[in-house]
Amino acid sequence: MKYFTLFVFTFLTLNIYAQKVELPIDTIVVSNHTVSIKGKNIAYTAQTGTQPVWNEKGIPVASLFYTYYKRDDIKNTENRPLVISFNGGPGSASVWMHLAYTGPRILKIDDEGFPVQPYGVKENPYSILDVADIVYVNPVNTGYSRLINPEENKTDRKDFFGVQADIKYLAEWVNTFVTRKNRWLSPKYLIGESYGTTRVSGLALELQNSHWMYLNGVILVSPTEIGIERDGPVEVANRLPYFAAAAWYHKKLPSALQSKDLDEVLAEVENYSINTLLPVLVKGGFIEETKKNEIASKMSSYSGISEKVFVQNNLAVPFQYFWKELMREYGGFTIGRLDSRYLGMDSKVAGDSPDYNAELTSWLHSFTPAINYYLQQELNFKTDIKYNMFGPVHPWDRSGDNSGENLRQAMAQNPNLDVLIQSGYYDGATTYFNAKYSMWQLDPSGKMKDRLSFKGYRSGHMMYLRSEDLKNANNDIRDFIIKSLPKEGESAKYSAQ
Q1: Residues 81 and 57 placed together within one structural domain of the fold
Q2: Helix, strand, coil abundance in the chain, percent, nearest 5
Q3: Rounded to whole angstroms, how far apart are CA atoms 273 and 262?
Q4: Number of domains in the chain
Q5: Residue 281 to residues 172, 264, 289, 390: CA-CA distances in angstroms?
Q6: Domain range for residue 305?
Q7: In this structure, are 203 and 111 located in the same domain?
Q8: What is the pTM of this model?
Q9: How many CB atoms neighbour CB 340 within 10 A?
Q10: What residue ranges of the chain have pLDDT lower than 70?
């Protein structure tokens, strides 16, 4: 329930378009609400607005749009966690986790995540706002965030649109935000989804080394490779567990496998991929013909597509072909890339890849009206600027992606820093088994493996769109936060004993 709205703004403005549509570059709109979480009513304040990024001369060169939720009945924030949330792309707004995962309001969709009308928003009974305050940050050109007069300020795009540039300016922004909101004493957590995992992995070290801001946790939702190499046989072998998950969902496995629970199937396929498939793939073109056919047959039984297809592709069936092939003879449907539960319909059944991403079009269908309504009508942030679900950030400089190693170093430097990884089994873009692989390779020494954990869900890239997983995944974050908080007076140190 909303009680009042207060506007606070400066007179600096951001010119976005030639027609002089303007957005204040440093503004706050404050509103008060309540939400029922796990059966308890919680009053909270929402602050939504813009905060600048300054260049070395102290001139505002960009303004980032954010929404900050703060629980009202917490007077002393020194023990109150702050979660700083980023989505990915790069070029994606923060809308996804904001309005469907951790925030106090979520969009109206069915229990499996598909659009329903009338569009709208509702309470999120599983939000983590009961245990942590949350800020959702939109990088430059996403949401309402924009560069400020780039021609006049001679702003170089390379200062914003690249792996390293992104991390550097966002760390500066976070520093300013934490200072403005008086949250330096609070335990701090970063959460990132998809490319956002690259972002927060790099931010963990950048915040520590350049801003002396130490974290308590990093949450990686549907993580990218985070700079950890896996090309060649490892990448091919790592595909198979995802193939099996998607085929199981669509009931395309042989009956002996289909009758098993998904967890049992995946455990079997993971073991096969690591201990049988990978050593064979290492031999490349020198695999014996009989062995190649034997492997192709087994991969076929685990994936729901023909042995012939694997042989023709030298055992390395591309993802795109799998999304086109799995349901080709069953209605001629394609399956989704980011969430393979979704079905698409191409202009022709033939072909090597789908015409479009069935899951993404479905998500844009439900999210776009919801976020535009919510920000303007419930949070009262009024603007004619277009909310960029995906914004112009390309070309994106992907060089120097050492985010995984940076996260490892941040953990090594900070005994209080733990990591949680969350993945959906039906995600074909950032597969769950690749997420496990990243976790295994993140710390080759194994000395920090007790500070790394993985959770899997029976959904896709945005696992929280499925009602059951919305509950489970939020509970997993809640437990992670509670468990990662040190006891009062507990020292952050390693012990040789």
Answers
A1: yes
A2: 40, 20, 40
A3: 16
A4: 2
A5: 45, 24, 13, 38
A6: 233-359
A7: yes
A8: 0.94
A9: 31
A10: 1-20
